[in-house]
Write a structure and sequence with these properties.
Blueprint (H helix, E strand, L loop, with lengths): L4 H5 L20 E2 L23 E5 L32 H12 L5 E5 L9 H9 L10 E6 L4 H11 L3 E5 L5 H8 L5 H14 L5 E6 L8 H8 L5 E6 L17 H11 L2 E4 L9 E5 L5 E5 L12 E4 L4 E3 L8 E2 L1 H6 L4 H14 L4 H5 L16 H4 L2
Parallel strand pairs: 1-13, 2-3, 2-11, 3-4, 4-5, 5-6, 6-7, 7-10
Antiparallel strand pairs: 8-9, 9-10, 11-12, 12-13
Bound molecules: S-adenosylmethionine and iron/sulfur cluster (SF4) (2 copies).
């Protein structure tokens, strides 16, 4: 088995939690488990399956200027949908405290997401604060952001100046009609393409483009998208349509397996596999044999990667989720706001939460006796905890 980067860095201390999480607040959030005795030390933690904590995904808003049919269908997220009020959102200072605590436990990569993260006012100020943090080995964290690209032409330079290193842009089609149908917006696809070019110009590189593939909806765009981005330095990644949330009417018959996507590309431009940069990489990478760059495949439906899942998610309103398919998060906002919590206590609470983690939803999905989701109740929406 390949040595993980975390192992290469030194010993990982398994954390023994003192308590199990208990159901709590009236909003259905769980209380964070009591802190493990941690003494404010810095040490990498592992969960019950030996997975290190390496990535923190931070959702900065639940709002979006698109209504992608597979993520925020207008039937649910229409005019009458109530988004979070401003006071429910974690402040930049609160987010930075949680991020700093996670870095003390081994996190090395911070990803800002949403909703649409570029809609959060003064996002650059948050980026500046996060860029000032340090990992366990004293390095700045990898700092990246996932966006639909609409505001990128306007914001690429200020994001770069604030300390953002890389960017991922979501784009599901080049064909205007398909793009409009999937994003359910009036934004022309050229705005997103201009945004990608702007990001390239200012050096937010390497740029990745995420394409969610829905069979019968946009699979005709696989080859045109690949043709467009070949040789540009942009890595196109094909994502299997996932059963996140409760509203997108997911159906297995609409999932085009990554193997099929790859076969379509290979028939046109032969591909060869590329070794992963990190064990925890969500995408399997392949390179065009003619040297025109790489493509990635994120196959969370047909090839579950729970065994290497090192991601913790922080929702816009301050709940921590240890799995994308969770039904409940752990409330960290009330801890930050109502108690005089120290950074050591915060770190100990995160360590305890991670130490209890056993999630492997995607692995279980294909089994006959699989639970519908991790825990009970409706699964959270992707636009709420971020992709
Ligand atoms: N609004 C930003 C964007 O679209 O890039 C960031 C948030 S979005 C929830 C993050 C990623 O999740 C996007 O790449 C999006 O395509 C992906 N996504 C959303 N719903 C999905 C689904 N049902 N299956 C697969 N990917 C999905
Ligand atoms: Fe908005 Fe991103 Fe969801 Fe599309 S995928 S609706 S852009 S949050
Ligand atoms: Fe990670 Fe949960 Fe996805 Fe498995 S299903 S890879 S544990 S987020």
């Amino acid at each position: 088995m390949r040595e993980t980067d975390a192992q290469a860095r030194g010993p990982i201390i398994p954390i023994q939690p003192l308590t199990t999480p208990s159901a709590a607040s009236s909003q259905g959030a769980l209380t964070l488990p009591a802190a493990v005795a941690f003494g404010g030390e810095k040490k990498a933690v592992t969960d019950t399956r030996g997975r290190a904590l390496e990535d923190l995904r931070i959702s900065v808003t639940d709002r979006c200027n698109f209504r992608c049919t597979y993520c925020m269908p207008r039937a649910t997220f229409g005019r009458h949908h109530r988004f979070l009020p401003h006071e429910a959102l974690l402040s930049f200072e609160e987010i930075t405290r949680v991020a700093a605590a996670s870095l003390r436990l081994g996190v090395r990569k911070l990803r800002l997401t949403g909703g649409e993260p570029l809609l959060r006012k003064d996002i650059e100020r948050l980026i500046e604060q996060l860029a000032g943090l340090r990992t366990l080995d004293g390095q700045p964290p990898e700092l990246t952001l996932t966006t639909n690209g609409v505001l990128l032409t306007r914001k690429a330079q200020s994001l770069k100046d604030a300390g953002l290193q890389r960017i991922t842009v979501s784009l599901d089609a080049l064909d205007p009609a398909t793009f409009t149908r999937m994003s359910d917006s009036e934004v022309p696809v050229s705005d997103v393409l201009d945004g990608i070019e702007a990001a390239q110009r200012v050096g937010l590189a390497p740029i990745k483009v995420n394409m969610v593939v829905q069979k019968g909806v946009n699979d005709g765009e696989i080859v045109p998208m690949a043709r467009h981005f070949r040789g540009t330095g942009v890595e196109l990644r094909f994502i299997e349509f996932m059963d996140v949330g409760e509203t997108n009417r997911w159906d297995l018959s609409q999932v085009l397996p990554s193997d099929d996507v790859r076969a379509r590309l290979h028939a046109q431009w032969p591909l060869a596999p590329v070794a992963a940069d990190r064990v925890a990489d969500t995408a399997q990478r392949w390179a065009y044999e003619d040297g025109a760059g790489r493509v990635g495949f994120i196959s969370s439906v047909t090839q579950a990667f729970c065994g290497d899942c090192t991601r913790l998610r922080l929702s816009t309103d301050g709940r921590l989720y240890t799995c994308l398919f969770a039904t409940q998060g752990h409330d960290i906002r009330s801890l930050l706001r109502t108690q005089d919590v120290t950074d050591a206590e915060l770190t100990g609470r995160l360590a305890a939460l991670w130490g209890l983690r056993s999630d492997r939803y995607s692995e279980l999905r294909s089994q006959a006796d699989a639970p519908r989701s991790e825990g009970s109740g409706p699964r959270v929406e992707m636009s709420y905890i971020g992709g």
